[in-house]
Amino acid sequence: MLFFKKITLFISVTLLIGCVSPKPVSTTEANYQEDILLRVKNYSGLINLYRSWLKKKDDPETRIKLARYYYLAGDYKTSLYTLQPLINKPSQPLYQLQAQNMIALGDFAQAIRVTDKMMLRDKNNAEAWNLRGVAQALSGKLSEGKQSVEQARALFIADDVALNNLAMVAILDRRYQDAVGLLLPQYLRGRKDERILRNLVLSLVKVGDFRYARDVIRNENLSQHPDELISALKQITTTGRSMG
């Protein structure tokens, strides 16, 4: 299995969603059903579940949670559509999910404008700075993107989130050794999130450490054909400028 053919699809960024805990149906059975679906990442099932709850009671928290599962399922336009009725009821979770969808759709300028709204409500919002940094970096503003992610880290966003996104900026800037330096210690400490693994493997390939890249691919079951994956990654040209 080959990984993504374009760097925009391979480089993995961490787009946090704030903790939203709606209670559309306060029954043990419903909560248990949701928990099971979450454990297996059955987003289609969660979408169906929340759509049924939303039909019974349309409230902002339930709608945001439904939009979140559309986002996680990769249906970014439907996620934004689901959020549309809440435009006149602004909140940080709403803005955060809007920005995530816009970044996923490549609308980086609009995503940055949404993070501006988040910062007007709370200038020390770590998630806003993180999303802003990702959007800036992917639009080619690498220096600004790095500064924003570093600000998110200073505001105590999860360390693995900040380090992965700083590595993403380094990859876009073709500073692959720097990316390895950021990600390898995380990996050796047992941090094996798929985003970290993808960026680490790409960076290892780019610095020519094919043996270690192959070991990570095999040990973490990233592909049944490590050599084909490595060959494909060699061909990827990473540049922040081309992302805009």
Q: How would you characterize the overall build of this protein?
A:
There is one protein chain. With 244 residues, the protein is mainly alpha-helical. It has 14 helices and no strands. α4 (60-72) runs parallel beside α6 (92-104) and α8 (126-138) packs parallel to α10 (159-172). It is globular. The model is unreliable at 1-9, 18-26 and 240-244 (pLDDT under 50).
Structural class: mainly alpha
The geometry reads as: globular
Distance between the termini: 28 Å
**SS element count, helices:** 14
Largest sheet: none
Can you give the helix content as a percent range?
Answer: 55-70%
From the structure above, extract its key features:
244 residues; mainly alpha; 14 helices; 67% helix; globular; disordered N terminus; disordered C terminus
Topology:
Elements: H1 7-10, H2 28-39, H3 43-56, H4 60-72, H5 76-83, H6 92-104, H7 108-121, H8 126-138, H9 142-154, H10 159-172, H11 176-188, H12 194-206, H13 210-219, H14 226-235
Sum this structure up briefly:
The chain is an all-alpha fold and about 240 residues long. It has 14 helices and no strands.
